[in-house]
Amino acid sequence: MDHYRRVPQELKALRRWCCWRLVRGTKMPVQATGTAAKSNDPSTWAEFETVEHFDRVATFLEEPYCGVDLDGCLEENGGLKQWAWELVARLSEVSYSEVSPSGLGIKFITKARKPEGSRCTHKIGEGKQQIECYDHSRFWTMTGEVYAGCDEIKDGQAVIDWLCGEYLSQTPKAAEPKPQQPAATSNKPQQRAIQHDALMQRAIAWMQSVEPAATGERNNKAFRTAGNLWAFTDAAGQRLTAEQVGDLMASWNAGNSPPLPDVELQRVIASAKTNGTPRADKLPTERVDLSGVDLSAIIAPSPAREPRRVDPEAALPAELLEVPGLIGDIMRYNLATAHFPLPELALAGALALMSTITAGKVVDKLRTRTNLYVMGLAPSGGGKDHARKLNRLLLRAAGHGEVVGPERIGSHAGIIACMAEQWLTLFQLDEIGHLVMAMQDRGSPHLVQISAVLMQLFSSADGEWQADAYGDRNKTKRLSYPHAILYGTAVPEGFWENLSEDNLKGGLIGRCLVFEAGKYVHYQEPQEIDLPASIVDRIRWWLDLQTGTGDLCDLQPGAHPRRVDRDEAAHRRLHQHMLDISERRMTEEPVRAALWSRAGENTNKLALLFACSRCNCEEWPVITLQDADRAIRLNNWLTRRKLLAADRHVSGSEFGRLVNQMRGLLRERPGESWSLTAITRRTRKLTPKQRQDVLKTLIECGDVIQDVKEVNGRTYVEYSSSEQAD
Fold first, then answer.
1. CB of 327 closer than 8 Å to CB of 512
2. For 60-65, what is the mean pLDDT?
3. Rounded to 5 degrees, what are φ and ψ at 496?
4. Which pLDDT tens digit goes with each residue over 431-451?
5. Residues 454-480: pLDDT tens digits?
6. pLDDT band, residue 294 (cuts 50/70/90)
7. Least trusted range by pLDDT, from 105-109, 533-537, 659-663
8. How high is the pLDDT of residue 180?
9. Cβ–Cβ < 8 Å for 478, 464
């Protein structure tokens, strides 16, 4: 089938294939005929062409291949659990990597042999979390769902040797005695002795693979490296101390040419502890006194209060709300100064502002511009205007308040006139749901045309756009490199209920990133904090940045942006995402295809903005794998939420009917779980793919909880409605 196209050809060429089925929760290998297949009987194996049209296929692991399975390493929202970061980082470099059939694990195939005497499994904490490693006599399920663009098999002997030595050795390593600490001769971190406990040994070994950084990339690399060090943990959950992380980073920094100043290095380490740690449970923010550079030194921690009630139908995953750099700093200031802290709208507003200040300044390798259309939905009286007010204050403080456009749009001609005067305009509109409804009123053609103009402007940021043509050429407007940024707010019901199927197919909503806040938000006494100079200075730096030369720079602003490159891993990840989006558009029904139509473009815009967010105004940004992954996950989540909301509120969607049917089925048993077998019996009219797509949509959007259990060595998957969960 098509979804197996990225399985390496060298595996497809081997006669080592079979199918598989679940028997009382256990995966069993079978031949295409349905009879049993055996890992020790090659006569039961088949060519790939024999099984490729089946949904469940597997290969048999034999020399020269070795397989590693990280069970339970993924969160239900797709995030990587902290214990797996180092393993995935090492294995991804040498392996073909797939998401497992459960969707909660990652499976790797590389070329290697296990060291003699190595065990096959290692348990990680509680539940179904373990490491498995096999190099013969094992059937290996395949999904074709490539993880992080890793679709090439390489020589992984060194990695397998390390893996087995660390986790699968028959006799655990004896703890080495800690060496005596010499008396400190200086207060500089690079001159302190390093404690050589077991966790430090792992960290030291990993640091040996981290190359020094040249001028222009020192801060970014230091941030990433320190973030990984903060994430190191042992089986007991212990982490490196601040002193150990500082010592390791100082030792690495000494190899840079030139090294970062000590004060700057400590600032980066402190920032990475909060913003750069690659795990969901971020460490608490510590105050760092560095002359006002770090926002955490300006904003005090919020007072303790009851946890916010989260609406499972609307709440963004917590890790998607943790954005490094300027975007994250703006969000934290927003939340600290709001009567009703809305993290989702804080992110929406910060993205609109970041889109504005980088407009015309940067492009990626595909000539992607940073103009975004963003919408924030929140209950009436819930403080949805706070982000709009903050954006206006920050732009005025930076000396560029003129880029904020009118707060009401009366006609498409008004948009054109505004853009003709100011090529870069941030439109911040309240109650945009009413405008969306008006755009559908065929009796008001001037309002209907607003949608068409906004769509045209969205796609014209990299060239010239001509408005309505008139007999008098002086009336015809030609706009060069127009950057219209839209940030609209509305109440959820008023927004979704005003949409029609034609409106969704039209394309404007597909271009928008729609953020929806939870239904319940606690009131807080806002902190009285002056606008942080570190935020204002970075906003001013971007807006004042000159990216071209000559007189045409003033005549055609935005014509000569600077390129932001991607690293190789980021490029592979984003390229595969575009291919996945293209396939979705060809297979989805019209309404859903329209909403997916701009997902790829918006993902590229988000990755570019996340890279710029990390820019320290000294070193030019580079789009990393972390930027790409964050952009893909955020945009996929927003798109699926948009699809689900449209399915609920807009008639005419067959997939929406199936989603509602499945949601209602799982609500029949309050507080109880459903097996896949039971669900299948009640939904016999659905194809396996339809059933899988519906369940996946409900899981990713938070309506359904998937629970993987292991009983007597057998794996069971159960589903339940989130409305019944505590």
1. no
2. 94
3. -70, -40
4. 776 666 656 555 556 566 787
5. 888 888 888 887 766 555 555 567 788
6. very low
7. 659-663
8. 37
9. yes
Give the best-scoring range by mean pLDDT among 192-196, 311-315, 713-717: 713-717
User: 624: which residues sit within 8 A by CB, 6+ positions away?
Assistant: 220, 224, 567, 569, 570, 611
Whether omega for the bond prior to residue 303 falls within 30 degrees of 0, making it cis, is no
In a 10 Å sphere around its CB, with 0-12 CB exposed, 13-18 middle and 19+ buried, how is residue 545 labelled? middle
Which of residues 227 and 61 earns the better pLDDT score? 61
CA distances from residue 634 to 23, 281, 700 in whole angstroms, order as listed:
36, 18, 12
Q: pLDDT digits over 542-596, tens only?
A: 999 988 665 555 666 778 899 999 999 899 889 888 888 877 777 666 777 777 8
Q: From residue 486, how far is each of 374, 493, 594, 635 by CA, in Å?
A: 6, 20, 20, 17
Contact 356, 403 (CB under 8 A): yes
- Of the ranges 380-394, 616-630, 644-658, which one carries the lowest mean pLDDT score? 644-658
Question: Could you say which architecture CATH assigns to the domain 653-724?
Answer: Orthogonal Bundle (1.10)
Range with top average pLDDT, 218-227, 307-316, 439-448: 218-227
What does the alpha-carbon distance between residue 296 and residue 283 come to, in Å, rounded to a whole number? 13
Distance between CA atoms of residues 128 and 381, nearest Å: 44
Fold of 298-555: Rossmann fold (3.40.50)
Cα 526 to Cα 530: distance, rounded to the nearest angstrom:
12
Structure tokens at 679: 């669900």
Separation CA 718–CA 712 (nearest Å) = 16
Distance (Å, whole) CA 129 – CA 144:
22
Q: Environment class of residue 718 by beta-carbon count within 10 Å: exposed (0-12), middle (13-18) or buried (19+)?
A: middle
Give the Å distances, CA to CA, from 416 to 358, 486, 508: 21, 14, 17
Structure tokens that stand for 345 in this block: 């709208």
Q: Find all residues with CB under 8 Å of 155, minimum gap 6, and list them.
A: 94, 110, 111, 112
Running DSSP on this structure, what letter comes out for residue 214?
A: B
- How would you list the strands of the sheet with 674-675, edge to edge? 674-675, 714-721, 704-711
DSSP state of 274: I
CA–CA separation, 240 and 228 (whole Å): 11
Task: Transcribe 528-555 into DSSP letters.
Answer: --PPPHHHHHHHHHHHH-----STHHHH
Main-chain dihedrals φ then ψ at residue 20, nearest 5 degrees: -150, 160
Q: CA 259, 261, 267, 272: dihedral to nearest 10 degrees? A: 0
d(CA 222, CA 255): 12
As a whole number, mean pLDDT of residues 335-343 equals: 90
Other Cβ atoms within 10 Å of 187 Cβ, number: 8
* Residues of the chain by 3-state class (helix, strand, coil), percent to 5: 40, 15, 40
Q: What pLDDT, on a 0 to 100 scale, did the predictor assign at position 587?
A: 65
Residues 6 or more apart whose CB falls under 8 angstroms from that of 670 comprise 721, 724
Contact 151/95 with Cβ under 8 angstroms? no
Instruction: Specify the pLDDT at position 520.
Output: 59
